[in-house]
Design a protein that fits this description.
Blueprint: H1 2-14, H2 21-48, H3 55-83, H4 88-114, E1 119-122, E2 125-128, H5 133-151, H6 158-180, H7 187-203, H8 216-228, E3 233-240, H9 252-264, E4 270-275, E5 278-284, H10 291-309, E6 313-319, H11 322-327, H12 330-340, E7 345-348, H13 351-373, E8 381-390, E9 395-407, E10 411-413, H14 415-424, H15 428-448, E11 455-459, H16 470-481, E12 488-492, H17 498-512, E13 517-523, H18 530-535, E14 540-543, H19 545-553, H20 555-570, E15 574-577, H21 583-590, E16 596-597, E17 606-607
Parallel strand pairs: 6-7, 9-11, 11-12, 12-13, 13-14, 14-15, 15-16
Antiparallel strand pairs: 1-2, 3-5, 3-6, 4-5, 8-9, 8-16, 8-17, 9-10
The structure holds ligand C2E and calcium ion (2 copies).
Length: 617
């Protein structure tokens, strides 16, 4: 017994172990089992000497042995409570109840043993009196544990619970059988069985015991297996942005919903949890011939849950693609699509997603090269410009610079494909410097040739503001081009948190001294914290196209947007509407305090050299 415990300890040290809080309880259980086994061995060696003077000592050791076994039971209860995060009244009740039983049976056991009611030592043999408290204590604890496990059964993945029930059944059967044969040599072993199960199921299993989810590695094994056996499968990915961070675990409620989703709709499903907020469910087509209908059902069930909880999501549904299976790249494939789709959308994967994904490698390599060569005139980075209509003058005198990449293998690449990639990989600032440099030079050139340019704006990613050289870099490029600062504007989106906000405020203040103007981009899509917006010295508020669309479709939205625009105008901001596509958009916006209008109605983005066609000479 003791040696099996040592093997357990060796396993604990040398295998992968999930070191949760419950693991401490687990380790204590193993230690108590070692002590119990040692006590058991000592007891038998004491009575084998047949020295009557030692019988009191033997009684004491036996009591200790029993007390240890009951303490193990108590720790089982604590362990189950820990693992299932049981809180509050029920937690206290179970702890109090098992502590009560523990004290009672230990006292009773001491009394019975020393008064010779439980058993007596007769020479080297034992005589049982048939009144052993042990069995009552044992049954009491088993009852507590069974009721507790029944109560918490929905807090763990079903297979985990079944694993425990099965192990407990084995323990009881062995104990009962040895009871019938009047033996006790396997008693400690029956305490060890659940521990072995705990170790494998709870602490060294690739799947998460709450969600029943496997991890990315295990998912990749599954993909490889399916690919090698030519099994087509379907994957459904759910991304919950709110839980994307390491520290934010899914709440138990959501876990239980995900668990039900994974088991109730498809046969043979595998659920993988890639990060807290990223889950991927897969099932084979072979086992689910009617999966299309089931997908419709699961999505409508999902929408119901979404109405209730409202967490932002992105859902991607696709079928296995050989090229992606071969390289086992589903996780990056899903992430790539996620990057491109808006929040709260359900996306069905098609061939173009695969093409785009394959292009990613090229794009990343190009970005890496561009960033390392740091050539501010890099020919792969193109500046397109969208002229902006000035409502007061009826002419074009401002524009927005929009970036494109021209890559030999792919052709023209649009920002939705590479901006997020550049941001994630730290290439964005170099790109901004190139765009700014090219914009400044083009504006300077137009000014020299007598065009009337009020200013051209450049998009800056909020991440860049964290760069301590940001302001210096911007000023240096503007100075080198010789263009006056006020001919350049920077478009920024709203900051999300307090520290970003302060950073933004400081950087804007520095660059404003140089005459640079500031636009608040995409107003109406973010958090729109008015208090913060008012604290920043923006010149122009760009109302996002979604606000134009909303105003066009409901009177109520139109009133809200119109009032907001009015308020900004009264506070000396200029209002620009983005995404003005036709005459009716234009008329509506003109009635909503517009100073500037931008959109396909006037022009699509054109190469910056073409801007001359729009501006006055
Ligand atoms: P954004 O800053 O909101 O830019 C406006 C986008 O709306 C542009 O897309 C433009 O082509 C598009 N657009 C213009 N008029 C209309 C219209 O009437 N209807 C519709 N539906 N769309 C219209 P584009 O050029 O694809 O850029 C997409 C986004 O990529 C930009 O959104 C911006 O967030 C980002 N981006 C573009 N260039 C840069 C850059 O140089 N630096 C950074 N950091 N981001 C950039
Ligand atoms: Ca913009
Ligand atoms: Ca915008």
């Amino acid at each position: 017994m003791v040696s099996i415990c040592y093997v357990m300890i060796i396993l604990m040290i040398f295998s992968y172990v999930r070191r949760t809080r419950s693991f401490t309880v687990f380790v204590s259980i193993v230690l108590l089992i070692i002590l119990a086994a040692t006590a058991d061995v000592s007891f038998y060696s004491l009575i084998s000497t047949s020295d009557p003077s030692r019988s009191n000592l033997a009684y004491a050791v036996r009591c200790i042995y029993h007390a240890l076994l009951f303490s193990i039971f108590m720790l089982y209860v604590v362990y189950i409570i820990e693992v299932t995060s049981l809180e509050g009244r029920r937690k206290r009740l179970y702890i109090a109840l098992s502590a009560g039983v523990l004290v009672a049976v230990v006292l009773l056991d001491v009394w019975q043993t020393f008064s010779g009611r439980a058993m007596s030592i007769n020479g080297t043999s034992l005589e049982f009196q048939g009144r052993d408290t042990f069995i009552y204590g044992y049954l009491a604890f088993v009852a507590i544990i069974l009721v507790l496990m029944f109560q918490v059964r929905n807090r763990l993945y079903r297979r985990v619970m079944l694993g425990f029930y099965a192990t407990m059944a084995v323990s009881f059967i062995i104990l009962a059988v040895q009871g019938i044969w009047g033996q006790s040599s396997f008693t400690v072993a029956t305490f060890l069985f659940p521990v072995i199960a705990m170790f494998y199921i709870m602490h060294s299993n690739p799947y998460d015991v709450h969600l029943g989810a496997i991890d990315q590695k295990a998912m990749e094994d599954m993909v490889r297996y399916n690919y090698e056996n030519k099994r087509e499968f379907v994957f459904m990915s759910l991304y919950l942005k709110d839980f994307d961070e390491e520290s934010k675990a899914l709440p138990p409620e959501i876990q239980s919903i995900v668990r039900r989703f994974a088991t109730d709709f498809f046969k043979d499903t595998m659920l993988a949890q890639i990060s807290n907020g990223q889950m991927v469910m897969t099932f084979t087509k072979h086992h689910n011939p009617n999966y299309e209908a089931r997908i419709v059902q699961i999505l409508s069930a999902f929408r119901l849950q979404y109405q209730k909880y409202g967490f932002d999501y992105k859902i991607i549904i696709g079928e296995s693609v050989d090229e992606i299976s071969r390289k086992n790249e589903y996780v990056s494939f899903i992430r790539d699509i996620q990057r491109r789709i808006p929040d709260n959308t359900i996306h069905r994967v098609d061939a173009s997603d695969v093409t785009t994904f394959k292009q990613m490698d090229h794009i990343l390599a190009a970005l890496d090269d561009i960033s390392h060569s740091e050539n501010l005139d890099d020919e792969r980075v193109l500046v397109y410009c969208q002229p902006v209509f000035n409502v007061d003058t009826g002419r074009y005198d401002t524009a927005e610079s929009l970036m494109r990449l021209q890559l030999p293998e792919i052709g023209l690449v649009f920002p939705d494909l590479f901006i997020p990639l550049a941001e994630e990989n730290g290439y964005i600032h170099v790109l901004t410097k190139i765009i700014l440099n090219k914009t400044c030079k083009a504006v300077q050139d137009m000014l020299k040739n007598g065009y009337s340019v009020s200013r051209v704006s450049v998009n800056v990613s909020p991440l860049e503001l964290k760069d301590e050289h940001f302001c210096d870099d911007i000023m240096e490029i503007i100075d080198n081009s010789g263009v006056p600062g006020e001919k350049i504007a920077i478009e920024l989106t709203e900051s999300r948190n307090e520290s970003d906000f302060i950073l933004m405020k400081n950087k804007i203040a520095i660059l404003k001294q140089k005459g640079i103007k500031f636009y608040l981009d995409d107003f109406g899509t973010g958090y729109s914290n008015m208090e913060r917006i008012m604290e920043l010295p923006f010149d122009i508020i760009k109302f996002d196209r979604s606000l134009v669309l909303a105003s066009g479709s409901s009177e109520r939205s139109r009133k809200i947007v119109s009032n907001l625009a009015n308020m900004f105008t009264e506070l000396d901001y200029s209002v620009l509407y983005e995404g003005v596509e036709d005459e009716s958009d234009e008329q509506m916006c003109e009635h909503m305090s517009a100073s500037y209008l931008q959109g396909y109605k006037y022009s699509r983005p054109v190469p910056i050299v073409k801007l001359k066609d729009y501006f006055d000479h």
